[in-house]
Amino acid sequence: MCLVTLLKISSKFVLIKSLQKDDYYMILAMVLAIGQNVAVTEQVTAGLGQHMDSLTESQVEAFQGTGYASQLLYILSLCITKLAVLEFLGTLAQSPVRRTATRSIMAVNGVWAIIATFCVAFQCGIPRPWAIISGHCFNQVAFWNALGAFDIMIDFAIVILPVYLLHDLKLVWKKKASVMAAFAGRLLIVPLTILRLIYITSTSKSADHTWDEFDAVATTQIIVNLSVVVACIPFLKPFLDSLQTGAISGNIRLKPLSDNSAAKKAANSLRSRKDNAGNGASFHFGSQHNWMDSSITHTTLITTDGHSEPVTANGSSNSSESMRIKQTTGVTVQFESYK
Description:
Elements: H1 2-16, H2 21-46, H3 57-89, H4 96-121, H5 140-165, H6 173-183, H7 189-202, H8 209-212, H9 214-232, H10 237-242, H11 246-249, H12 261-276, E1 298-303, E2 308-311, E3 323-329
Antiparallel strand pairs: 1-2, 1-3
């Protein structure tokens, strides 16, 4: 899990030389997942997998406390992991309606996590909210079943959302299919979530919690770690290479101009044409499809009458009419894409 997360971060950093919001979310999700793993390890030390009648009172108390921490970290880890994926999907949203759809799912995910965290935090009341075995807690089966149902619905929404967002993008079907397949990895979490709920239901009336809850805890561990892994898949470099489209480059800044004097002159000449253009003239940088450095090769300008002409190495051209860039190859420019 940690290795895949670090690969995700490094792949993204190699491409754009910086970290973005989704990267920080993934780092936080990894930290929370590690914390959850540590809590379960301590729960095993306290007696998980052993018969409760063989444990001391202090071990049972430690078992409950570590299980309580594990449940809280489970919810937070899942929430932040999904938030990282949704943040990345937001870069594909190229219209207000699509951005609203993405933010709506993010809001539902956030509300789900807040309610779940609050309920788990006070599931058995004050002053011992972790005393799950005490019998003074709310209905655990009903709570986890409701929570799991919403969790599954959010996972399905995350899988379906890329299909909606990519509908109008100018990508060949093969690339669209690879994008959808990358995000479809969350479907692997759904049967595990259902299996976890079955285990929780079957052990709800158990008198030997430390022994009977082993399967439920083990399944929870798999869900937490697998959730982080499948969330990293869309960020790995081969996948990002297939998504070289203005939809993403509009949100990921390209590197500044290098010291190539010809490139600088060409860019400065283009800016000069923008400043000298008359009222009503339009001049826009087109979306670049390469996130890596490249040397200047050629720049083609399309004049207002539809003719094209090259820009020379010193940034000049033969036309004095107002112009709009149609295609630029090799000039790396820092820009924001407006659609």
